[in-house]
Structure formats: structure tokens, C-alpha cells
Specification:
Elements lengths: L2 H22 L2 H4 L4 H4 L8 H4 L1 H18 L6 H27 L4 H23 L6 H24 L19
Amino acid sequence: MDKKRILIWELIAIIFIIFLGSASHFFFEWSGSLIYIGLFSPVNESVWEHLKLTYWPLIIFCLIEYKFISSKSNNYFFAKLSGAILMNLIIISVFYSYTSIIGEELLIVDILSFIIAVIFGQFLIYKLMTIPEINRQYIQVISLIFLVIYGLVFIIFTFFPLELPIFLDSISGKYGIP
């Protein structure tokens, strides 16, 4: 295992996810509301849709990085799944905590929570990839399957959002694709 190489890749991932995630916030609008763009970028201002800002850039980076460090690290897919979940949990927790206290949304807090989520998620990924290997065959396959299912859930709920607050567009008051 090459901890230094893994650390460099995960630091690059932080920058990649922050920049691509930030830009992808606007892809659906810039595309003229093309449905296939909305599968991978927010289609409205709901908390759920904004979770795509961490998930899809992480997956893209994962696909790039896999060739270079998967064999030099432990627990690769387990680490990526854990990081993706942590990033989204941080964003959800921060958003609902601060909005329940102050009663309104603050763009600067949302942006900072996104950045903090990416940093903490990537730190977790680094830590999990540098600890001793967990049962590689079983955990890795299950983790990869869950990473794929996670992405499919984003796609499904883009078209069929539940009528829950996390799916509610805070600007239009509607659910799903405008």
C-alpha cells in the first residue's frame, strides 16, 4: 500500500469534486433543461437534488482514479461508498439543523457545508483505503452494488420524487423536474 500516493489522489479528489460539483449545479439550466443532464445534476432547488453535487463528481473521479490506485489501496469500493454517504449525511444534517434554528436558508452556509462535506468524506475515504483490508471479495462487491444502486436512486427520484421535505423545491414549492 502506498499511503502517500493515495493521499495525493484523495486531495486531488477534493478539488475535483468541489469544482465539478459546483459547476454541475448549473448544468441542467445551462442545457435548456435536457432530461439526461438532469439525471446527473440538480433539476431544482431541493436538498435531495443538491446531493447529486457530491455523488456524481465522486463517481466520475472514482472511475478515473480506479486504474491508478485501486490495487495500491485497501477497501476501495467500501471507502468510496462510505465517503459518498458521509458527504450526503453532512449536507442534510447541516441544512436541516441550521434552517430549523434560524428559519431560513443561507447560501453561504449551504456552500460551506458542501465544501466541508467533501473534505470530511474524502478524509474518510483516505482512512478506509489505508487501514487493513476488510474481507475484500464480500465487502467490495456489496459496496460496488450499493454505489450503483445509490446512483439509480438519484435517477429514479429525479423523475418520481416522494412528497417529503427533502424533495421539495424551496423556490417553486414543487417536486421533481420543473
